[in-house]
TrEMBL record:
It comes from Vigna angularis var. angularis. Residues 1-24 form the signal peptide. Residues 25-128 form the Phytocyanin domain. Keywords: Copper, Electron transport, Glycoprotein, Membrane, Metal-binding, Signal, Transmembrane, Transmembrane helix, Transport. GO terms for cellular component: plasma membrane. SUPFAM superfamilies: Cupredoxins. This is Phytocyanin domain-containing protein. The chain crosses the membrane at residues 150-169.
C-alpha cells in the first residue's frame, strides 16, 4: 500500500515541478559573456534575444563589474539613437535582476559613455506567460538558460525522499 502512495506522491510532485517551471525563468543576459561591450562579438545581445523566449514574470539577470557598467531602461527612440540622457530607470549594482512585468518590448542599454553605441544594448520582446492554460504534460521543456529547473532538480528529489521516508516510517 505504501508503494502505491509513494508512486502517487512522486507523480504529484513531478507535475507540480513542471507547473512551477513554466511559471517563470531567469535569463542570464549574454550567458557567460555577461553584460559587457561586445567588442569581439557585436551580435552577442541580438543573438541572445533571438534565441531566447521571454515570458511575463521571467527575470533578466545582468552580470557586470559594478562601477564599470550599469543597466538602464529607456524608450525605443532613445534606444535606437543611444541617447542615454533620457533614462526611465537605471540599475548600478551587479547583478541587476529585472522582472519582465508586462508583455511587449523592453529596451536596455549601458549608460556609460559610448558603451551603447559600441553595442552594449539589448532589446527583447516579452510574450504572455500562458502557464495557466497549459497542462503539465503540454508544458514546454525548460529553457537551458533558466536557473529555476536546476534548483528544482535538487530540491524535488530531496523533498520526495523526505516524504517517502516519512510514509515508510508510519506504515511500519
Ligand atoms: Cu557599459
Amino acid at each position: 500500500m505504501a508503494n502505491v502512495e509513494i508512486l502517487f506522491l512522486l507523480l504529484t510532485l513531478k507535475l507540480m515541478s513542471l507547473q512551477y517551471i513554466t511559471e517563470a525563468a531567469e535569463h542570464v543576459v549574454g550567458g557567460d559573456s555577461a553584460w559587457i561591450i561586445p567588442i569581439n562579438n557585436p551580435s552577442l545581445y541580438s543573438s541572445f534575444a533571438a534565441s531566447t523566449t521571454f515570458r511575463v514574470n521571467d527575470t533578466l539577470v545582468f552580470n557586470f563589474r559594478t562601477g564599470a557598467h550599469n543597466v538602464a531602461t529607456l524608450s525605443q527612440k532613445h534606444y535606437e539613437s543611444c541617447n542615454v540622457t533620457e533614462l526611465t530607470e537605471s540599475f548600478n549594482t551587479s547583478p541587476a535582476k529585472i522582472t519582465l512585468n508586462r508583455t511587449g518590448d523592453f529596451y536596455f542599454v549601458c549608460a556609460f559613455p559610448s558603451h551603447c553605441s559600441l553595442g552594449q544594448k539589448l532589446s527583447i520582446h516579452v510574450t504572455a506567460g500562458g502557464s495557466s492554460s497549459l497542462t503539465p504534460s503540454e508544458a514546454p521543456l525548460p529553457s537551458p538558460h533558466s536557473g529555476a529547473p536546476t534548483l528544482l532538480a535538487v530540491t524535488v528529489p530531496v523533498l520526495v525522499m523526505a516524504v517517502a521516508t516519512n510514509l515508510l516510517f508510519h506504515s511500519y
